[in-house]
């Protein structure tokens, strides 16, 4: 799960963030997470607030029962593309108390028959599937605050599967930040707080992302500021026309 050649973010764009935390064993301990540099200040702020307010956290780095983690270079569960954990822009917070719940399909070798069922995080008691209970450690109470820190999407709101532990920045932002410098990435991250509704409207199909990647590669220094400056026009234009407008403006600025 650690960084290796072929991961979608370079080793230089990862930070090691250290913080104190209150554990479920009643002790105060030192924890650390590996995270993308652009979200590292926000992650530190989240855990500082948790510590100040004595909010308990499962052990960063994981353990036999429960844990909290961020960067791990791996594919999406059940899919072929990289998880946003591979970019360091996704947080799994206290996963023992906040399980992943997904559909499991097993295709039999003969007859093409299949069985469906539900998979949950190993070792998580079934009682934690009932989210109407008032149990310490449920992530629902943290959603608004963590969203305000740039991890604008919570897996507990997903429809095709439910991932109560999981918070992430938008895929659109996560795919692009490794191509721009830190300051530009921080500029773009402001939209995760202020315009996440729009960022999640951008297509993340490979063909669509490719054109944005090309634009960033052509104009790495100017892209983020131009994007943020003009994002208010997205709803009126739609993605294709917004792209063309932005491309034209960047070309014009570069020719000055």
UniProtKB/TrEMBL annotation:
<dbReference type="GO" id="GO:0008233">
    <property type="term" value="F:peptidase activity"/>
</dbReference>
<dbReference type="Pfam" id="PF13539">
    <property type="entry name" value="Peptidase_M15_4"/>
</dbReference>
<feature type="domain" description="Peptidase M15C">
    <location>
        <begin position="78"/>
        <end position="168"/>
    </location>
</feature>
<dbReference type="InterPro" id="IPR039561">
    <property type="entry name" value="Peptidase_M15C"/>
</dbReference>
<dbReference type="InterPro" id="IPR009045">
    <property type="entry name" value="Zn_M74/Hedgehog-like"/>
</dbReference>
<protein>
    <recommendedName>
        <fullName>Peptidase M15C domain-containing protein</fullName>
    </recommendedName>
</protein>
